Amino acid sequence: MKEFTILKFLDKIKFIFKFAGIDYPLLRKILQIKFVMDERRVPTIMMNGKNHNESNSFKSGLLIYALMGIFIGIFMLPPFPLFLKMNIIIGMLMFMIMTTMISDFSSVLLDIDDKNILLPRPIDAKTLSAAKLIHIVVYLFSITLAITAGALIIGLFRYGFLFFLVLLFEIILICGFVILFTSLFYYVILTVFSGEKLKDIINYFQIILTIFMTIMYQFIGRIFNFTDLNISIPLHWWHILLPSAWFSAPFSIFIEHDYNSHYVLLSVVGVIVPIIAITLYVIVVAPRFERNLQKLNSDSSKRTTMEKASLRRTVSDIICHNPVEKAFFRFTLQMLDNERKLKLRIYPNMALAVIFPFIFLLSLFGGMESFSDTYAEISQGRYYLYLYISVALLAAMFQLISLSQNYKGAWIYKVLPVDNPAVVLRGALKGFLYKYIVPIFLLISLLFISIFGLKILPDLALIFLNMLILMLAIFHFSKKELPFYKEFQYAQNGSSTAIIFLMFALCGVTAGIHFLALKFSPFGLALNIGMSLIIVILLWHFSFNISWKDIEDTE
Length: 555
Known about the structure:
Elements: H1 5-12, H2 14-19, H3 24-40, H4 57-73, H5 82-109, H6 113-118, H7 125-159, H8 161-192, H9 195-220, E1 225-227, E2 230-232, H10 243-254, H11 261-292, H12 306-319, H13 323-338, H14 340-362, H15 371-380, H16 387-395, H17 412-415, H18 421-452, H19 457-477, H20 496-520, H21 524-543
Antiparallel strand pairs: 1-2
């Protein structure tokens, strides 16, 4: 089996594990297997092709993270104070690490398969827990080092070797802090809840965490005051609540030799808090966390309430006319209720679809005008067209419906007496619209109405029709795939990138036509609504004019 550099390093400090009562040879073998499996794992950022070289997926993922890190390193170049630059860099870094924890590694943190398989054998829980912790640390540190490579190299040439050492030490503390924060989050949830309800709450909190980190990322650069190139960095007591400030302060002390008491306090907090947190995690949290993970074994199947089932039958009777289409409408809703891994793909897109238009609106504040003047200008303008950002994100979501953790059950499509696959796909699309797209669009619309008033109702109707056009266009030009038939590892086929670019291009075109219709003709909006409605009807007719020969093979 392949040898890894990290294992050779652990060999040199194996006495530490033996002193802690850990079976090191067994620990080494478990880690070796985990690292081999990591190389076969396809990272989220590489879900762009169907065929992956298993031995190079992880390394290729690290290369992509390194390219992203170059853009982060560019923030080292402007002649700004280090405290500002490092707040931006570390804020971006923490955002990307936390996103990685959510998108790629939550399944590892919450994994109980290795415990179910190995603990019945002569393997003690302490050795298995240590292997899991080391695995997570090595994985995250590898990604973090790739992301920060640009800043490390640029900082080394710009500020010297001391900067390099300080940033490297900060990276270690940041990794520990992120691991501790995520584990504590799950530990609290695991302590309070159990079984199927616990899994739902983990999904909900993951999306809340995604929203929080996205918003914090947007605001980190706005906690300082900019006036042309004269940058004011007011130090306030509440900076102690910002982890990015903890890890940025040491650079002002060691590199710029600014011994302000605020920097000293923030630096001390940035060292003490992660060390205490990691110690508490190893001694207190980790053992209880692993024991509470067994609650995930209580897999009581979630049952749809009578009221929900009755409502779904009523809705299917209204919007579906074919009995088979009605059946697949309800089947899609039931699968979407139970597909936990699919939710982890869908929920972040839903969250971003809600918050991104408002982030763009918030960027309009902070100029020379007062808050009330800016708000009045926004509410009287056409800034509600930012909703097309949400449209672009929502329209791309339907492609995810082909994914399933229960994809091996797709053989059922071959034995069902269904002559026309169009009824299956129509039922799935209507179910997806009912479950996710329409509720989120209504939520965003209500928020925009609270800002712009009821006068934008016709515009919202047009935007919704244009969103349907985008979804049907993506469906029409992509391979026809049955719902819930494909493994997550092969999340997208080779043409997905082109289709996504096509979707954004069409979104820009529809938004441009919408703007021109408002600007040059008093009847332009009504005419645009009529044209979009006709296009939706035509696309719906031609997109579902398919046979089983047009469906991608489920085998």
